[in-house]
Description:
5-stranded antiparallel beta sheet
Amino acid sequence: MSDGDGAVRCVVPDCGDRVVHHHDGGEYGLEDIPELFQLGSTEPDTGERERERLRIQAEEIRELKVLADAYSFDFEPGLIGLCLDLHRFAVTRPETEFTFEQRF
Length: 104
């Protein structure tokens, strides 16, 4: 998959090329999570390509799931899907903090 493949991956911990979320082409991204839900924080990519990154605690991801369910009719379906995919991924992992990177 290329860098512009429309996907979100977990980069901390390094999960290789495993896709956590496929972007559906809508107007949403990782930066919306801290802005709309006040959870996690964005950080700039230190590489040559600009990619949005979200650093978020496991407990915040659990809260994100609750908020995504509660506001599912208020926000774009793609954003809600992103939130639920992050939760689905995180609940299977023992880590307490994650950094996700979007490539779209």
